[in-house]
Amino acid sequence: MIKFAIALSLIGLAILSMACGSKTTETGKAIKSAQAGNNLTVALATADGVLKHGNTEFTLTFTDSSGTPVDVGAVALTFHMPQMGMMQAMNDPATFTTTDTPGVYRGKANIQMAGEWQAQITYDGPKGRGQASFPVMAQ
Question: What total of structural domains would you count in the chain?
Answer without folding.
Answer: 1
